[in-house]
Amino acid sequence: MSELINNREYRQEKLKEVIKELHAGKSVEEVRAKFAEVIKGVTAKEISLMEVELVKEGIPVEEIQRLCDVHAAVFKGSIEEIHHPEEVPGHPIYTMKQENRAIEEFIEKNLKPSLDRFKENDSDDNRYRLISDINLLWDIDKHYSRKENLIFPYLEKYGITSPPKVMWGVDDEIRAKIKDIKLSLTSYNGNREEIINKVEDAINQIKEMIFKEENILFPMCLDTLAEDEWVKVYEESDEIGYALIEPVKWNRSRVNVEEKAKEETKGEAVERGYIKFETGILTTKEIEHILNTIPGDMTFIDKDNIVKYFSQGRERIFARTKAVIGRTVQNCHPPKSVHVVEKVVENLKSGKKDVESFWIKRGDKYVLIQYFAVRDENGEYLGTLEFTQDIAPLQEITGEKRLVTD
Question: Residue 40: pLDDT above 90?
Fold first, then answer.
């Protein structure tokens, strides 16, 4: 694991060097060739971390924004290889991608043909048609507004601040260009070539933004936001509106665990403050970090088989994303192993067993996976706790240790 961490840190430094060398004036091709191997398989999250580090080191957000298009060009080949999660019709990200397809289609079938006619003849009819298309293109403002006002706040909540700032700045540049084109066309003074260049520049920047959204922003969002947060984004989207499409309804197959918890506790769910236990008092912040400090992975499945929580320790054995929250445990495992999971949970739920253990070899790790029945003081089943840990270091322990080592 330390080797993997070191590799990530090494690549992070090299990724920062890419941007710094571009900033110093090197060409895209020079940087691409030099760092081709380093950026192979780079993830959206690493790019996000890189931008955060650059800001911390004093590079202004405006400078990163100025390099944003070059940045995307450098990483394009490797980012496109990232595996995207399954798209669900009606999910906010699905809708945003549908809007992007509609924007691309509008540009190719409407805006570009109108621009071509204007290039050939800047008659009033051709100019008015181009103005009409530019007015329709302004619908893109709804797409950007939902992204900025509904999604970015959640990213910032999780400490991802630099990418939203950079992207919001580029969104505003695109808005300003569309407004400028409309003004130039309505007060036309024969500057045809200037307007043509402005429209083509805006089209290129819009297409680059589509690439950055779908290959950098959206994967990062899907990896970061919890299901309940996506529900809130979905519920608040109608108020802002949509760009060039009518969205489909999101038929969610997952449970809103926040609403479920409020219902089960009669609205007494605690978000901030403290919880009083029989043996002491802890703040919710202390509880979260205690659970994340325990050397192992924990996942809790409630009495209805809904995945309700997982810990986020420093060195996870099995990857988890927030997308699993609210799903049934059966849907979180491949079909070939579902019957085993169901058997384990049923034995714990029925009281036939209180714990089930498995152990497997995984590289240099010896992984112990245990499932514990969680019951209340009356023996009523509350759910199942999955606890996974690498016991290889424990097996190496011999003798005694009574002194503190430096």
Answer: no
**pLDDT in the model for residue 2:** 36
User: Can you list the domains of the chain with their CATH numbers?
Assistant: 2-79 (no CATH), 92-240 (1.20.120.520), 257-395 (3.30.450.20)
Stated length of the chain: 406
Quote the pTM value.
Answer: 0.55
Which pLDDT band holds residue 86 (cuts at 50, 70, 90)? Answer: very low
Pairing of strands 297-302, 355-362: unpaired
Residue with tokens 């690439």: 211
Tell me what percent of the residues of the chain surpass a pLDDT of 90. 44
- Cα end-to-end span (Å), the chain: 22
